[in-house]
Amino acid sequence: MSNKIRLGILGGGGDSLIGVLHRVASSMYDSYQLVGGVFNPDLDQNIGFAEKIGIPTDRVYKDFDTLIEEELKLPETERMQVVSVLTPNFLHFPMAKKLLENGFNVICEKPMTTTYEEARILKDILDRSNAIFAVTYTYTGYPMIRQMKEMIASGAIGTVQKIDAQYYQGWINPIIHDGEKRAATWRLDPEKSGISCCIGDIGTHAFDMIEYVTGMEVKEVLADLNYVYSDNKMDVDGTVLLRFSEFVKGLIRTSQIATGEENNFTVSIYGDKGGLKWEQENPNYLYHLTETEPLKVLKPGHAYNSELSLDGSKLPPGHPEGIFDSMGNIYKGVARAIRKEKYHPGEFPTMNDGVRGMNFIERVVESHQKGNTWVKV
Amino acid sequence: MSNKIRLGILGGGGDSLIGVLHRVASSMYDSYQLVGGVFNPDLDQNIGFAEKIGIPTDRVYKDFDTLIEEELKLPETERMQVVSVLTPNFLHFPMAKKLLENGFNVICEKPMTTTYEEARILKDILDRSNAIFAVTYTYTGYPMIRQMKEMIASGAIGTVQKIDAQYYQGWINPIIHDGEKRAATWRLDPEKSGISCCIGDIGTHAFDMIEYVTGMEVKEVLADLNYVYSDNKMDVDGTVLLRFSEFVKGLIRTSQIATGEENNFTVSIYGDKGGLKWEQENPNYLYHLTETEPLKVLKPGHAYNSELSLDGSKLPPGHPEGIFDSMGNIYKGVARAIRKEKYHPGEFPTMNDGVRGMNFIERVVESHQKGNTWVKV
Amino acid sequence: MSNKIRLGILGGGGDSLIGVLHRVASSMYDSYQLVGGVFNPDLDQNIGFAEKIGIPTDRVYKDFDTLIEEELKLPETERMQVVSVLTPNFLHFPMAKKLLENGFNVICEKPMTTTYEEARILKDILDRSNAIFAVTYTYTGYPMIRQMKEMIASGAIGTVQKIDAQYYQGWINPIIHDGEKRAATWRLDPEKSGISCCIGDIGTHAFDMIEYVTGMEVKEVLADLNYVYSDNKMDVDGTVLLRFSEFVKGLIRTSQIATGEENNFTVSIYGDKGGLKWEQENPNYLYHLTETEPLKVLKPGHAYNSELSLDGSKLPPGHPEGIFDSMGNIYKGVARAIRKEKYHPGEFPTMNDGVRGMNFIERVVESHQKGNTWVKV
Amino acid sequence: MSNKIRLGILGGGGDSLIGVLHRVASSMYDSYQLVGGVFNPDLDQNIGFAEKIGIPTDRVYKDFDTLIEEELKLPETERMQVVSVLTPNFLHFPMAKKLLENGFNVICEKPMTTTYEEARILKDILDRSNAIFAVTYTYTGYPMIRQMKEMIASGAIGTVQKIDAQYYQGWINPIIHDGEKRAATWRLDPEKSGISCCIGDIGTHAFDMIEYVTGMEVKEVLADLNYVYSDNKMDVDGTVLLRFSEFVKGLIRTSQIATGEENNFTVSIYGDKGGLKWEQENPNYLYHLTETEPLKVLKPGHAYNSELSLDGSKLPPGHPEGIFDSMGNIYKGVARAIRKEKYHPGEFPTMNDGVRGMNFIERVVESHQKGNTWVKV
């Protein structure tokens, strides 16, 4: 019998891309076995999907509540050990909550919840449990991001003094300019997507990344969002000024109307001894700038990288790995945590990242609505 | 019960990187289930490895002959459908031969055999069977390589008139200059590695790639190899001039002493209407040059790509995929072939690629030994 | 006798880099002859410098007033036709003013003056004269910037909807953290450098560039500057949010504490049909992004470029030109204007650019001092 | 009176690009004054051109012989000190010869002559004179090429073991496929262009560059050229295998049918301690590869560069200079030599480079004609 971790998945059926990402990631390090879940609200499609992906259908449940009920009847040695929540955003909170309350470990897609309050409730529940909880800020799993984090921690660029993160996409451009489309897109509907589109979807990635690599906390934000049309209720572009302390500042720039941009997420951190820069679309390069030395370009898999970074590469230098491998690293970390093996806190984003992310979204919108003023995070 | 394709693996145990690559690739599209194999010549390590990667140990066999014997006892509906051969090079031929003779489909690592003669024998056997046989020239699975192939086929650069492929690495540099190390390295021992090191290991990738993307055949070669030391019996660097026809020429440049290079494999194809260029270390960019238009940079996942290319991307543009995903595409194609689904001949390299590759290696060494003269392929 | 334009230069002696830049630029198109000037406040050094650069010393004057006086005595056919003002910033205004009042054409380094008021005075004088007046925002002379301007004007990216300019340097980093150095650096002394360091020196380049390439005007700014130390009186970093209209926004990001950055000036303009991006450190590439086509990379000298762009290249594609060539293009435009030949208004930045630049600096500082609020430009 | 070096120019009139390049280069460091020449075989056009570029016409001569005659009548303090030969290739030899014989310093465009024999004759004459003679292999003037030379000399990459130079262009592609055009193009006419087109025009640049940066000499060549059509008499593509010693090899790859390539000249040198790579189209980056350190990217103007390199930059890092600046550096070196100031032998290519270049061309064609065999250089 397999000694893999028993994984369940909620959502991710049909043509879901996030489903593919999580399934591939879970299989990368021979650690997980997908044993069942609720991939689809429709039972027939649910079963059909299980067959399509070639897993037994006996633990494919008709709905979430049944999953909980039936799994709890199984002995602990057979029960799902961790459940990945890939459903629409508004379901993250109730599902994660009930999973935690019933002793399941949880891997939750971002945004973790739809409000900061929900996030805090979830945190309280987790604090009283022994469960492992991960939020899939996927980009933090890249080897060169891990290297960036450890280089900053070890003083490679001195004291951080300037931070600039960009997350530019163009995908909403053709939608926003078409009255019908912008009324019909769920991402632009506050009922379905919460209070923010651009900041909520991609701004949080930038926010989490900054705090991940620097180990610093954003203290205040001043935001200017763009809704482009007066009948549009959701931001599709926004700049957020950041303060970490009186003289340490930064900014997050996000857009979904940067026409032609694909997924142009970049992070630049400058300290008094040097700078580090990274681009998500070319994730295997980390640029180290100093005042007096040639520019250095670090790449994955080399012995000069930290252990945490090296742990995130499967092949030698020159064999490019990508975003599936990044998510695979996060799943690997969660597997270690579940198995109570030793792991580095940087291996996966936690509840704390999820809570801070929700707070960030609400404070940014508040700053914008108050006329672009400073708001404490 | 799972309807996944039942996969066996020979070799790839312990810390084998090629083992990781094949296991991850096989799991990417929910198509395969690893049911057993012989991962290691030592039975205990073999069992231990199976446990480590979390698969049942009942079909982990003590050796290759036992695997054949026992699997044949199973009903066809339970028997392994395909076996991946990841063992040391000299075992590829006997194992692939026996697998084909016993009706198994085969996925074989490159080089397919150690001699051209073995390759032709294997081809004869395959020609008399109904089996699917793939050789894992991994790089042909990249979406932008597939796009390159289809653009050339569709006339995007006109008639091909100039070809240049480079495969530069530096890994053998510290070994070659150390008398003891170069005597002890199996790659430099003709008994273990066949007649060529550099051409055999990486030159064949370049050769196969050129024929894959252009659909043309190399007719003649003139090679100059470098052994660096007179006591060294294996090439570690070599340039091969190519002739496709009287006025269509090209070259393959390979090196393992290009110090500091990682896995710098590039392909440039020029026609009378334009050129196409690609670099393995940045595999998600395809450069299209013409005389009168701006340089165009094609990227995976866009609607302007061919079906074959799009089939090789799992996520939208801007989400970088890498070499695991490339190998995953090859496994996906093999799965379709095994399931007798429709597939494109460009989805995986076949026996023919393997045979030509072996011929290429022998002709290159012949050309060098004859004093750098032209030899027909 | 030469029919070149007779050029005088104020400042730029000794090891002055700006002097080299202007002299080389003036010589690039066989249009100017340097006939004299005041290179240095010390007459001996002044003469010595003239000898060093190999020009006759008879029109090398002891000071600016003498230059005016003596040149006016010469017949118009011998008199300096244009004078380049390369002196310290606070001298730009009085010198440019007197030159204009005495009928000389002027090429003035930026910042044009030290206050917005001075700038308006200068503009009034120019408006009543027939003189040619250029401000050397050097970067607008690059062929791909000219191409960007014309592509935007011709609708290549549709209606502009998002603008992002970055100008990051790191040079002041080692100075700012050293109490003695930061007290002794003239750039950080408001007496010598006006009210702003970072915005005044490099922010204005970004501001002018945005208005140059888009043809649009910034209407409002909200700025957050960073002085890093409480005893430091000049900004060394700053982010400026821009409004062009209610729903068309942008930002300028500037820093002199982005440690390790050299002269990293980039401009990205997004419209509803596409985007255009450019980087000063690799000035011969213009990136054109659309939603449905491959990324296009335009390069100088190709027939697909506009006339204005092509006029800025001296050699065929593939022969990189740089910042000297960019300044040379500005001088070429001024030569045409002086000779009353036909020229394109985009060939050199004018008084209007200078005036708006000074207004921008003052409004940015005002916004910061008012607590990061919106201020009209 | 000016103390600049008195420069004459032969050729380079009309729309000549090479004329622009030399005039701008000569003016870059305030060292030369163009006093006359023979820009055009037609006297009227000759005078007209002098007026257009704004120089006095009194020393614009009707032909080369007259120039020699008249200049010799002038006192040495007024006579041209150096003459740049920019005429069609077949005139280089007779003009350079006569100039040297009459005591003029010479700056000669490449190829220096049309045959190796002419080159040796020229060398003999020079050896018996005190003149300065430079051949304008322009690319050797780039600061990062100078840095590459000095790093190799100082052992930064250890003992050189592998060399690869590429010079790919596509410009002849539309001509070669058009029977009429290829018959009418002077570059493809052996009467006008000597025995080689591609090797003669660009292969020599690669050859000179390799010997320049490594300080090593090519000992043997084996070449395969491509004439593309049987009625075409001149190579438009060619690969040359190089031997420096038994185990140190390299290659030069050249093409004018690499459709879409502009001026893609690259040089890669690998030693047993590391590698150095450079690309002409992005000349301000020098890549330093080692086995154990991150990739280092060196840029001009930094203190970590050698004196020779730093001498070739006029502005601080981040201000891109280009090919005009590279040629300017060569002219600067020649000026120092003429003035008998101290200079580094790497500042400009000499007669020796010219002679070896002509020998290379002839040996390459010989190797090709002998059926692609090894020929000593």
From TrEMBL, chains A, B, C, D:
Q: One Pfam annotation, family name?
A: GFO_IDH_MocA
State the Gene Ontology terms under molecular function: nucleotide binding
Where's the Gfo/Idh/MocA-like oxidoreductase N-terminal domain? 19-137
Identify the residues that the record assigns to the GFO/IDH/MocA-like oxidoreductase domain, covering every copy. 145-276
**Protein name per the record:** Gfo/Idh/MocA family oxidoreductase
**Species assigned in the record:** Sinomicrobium weinanense
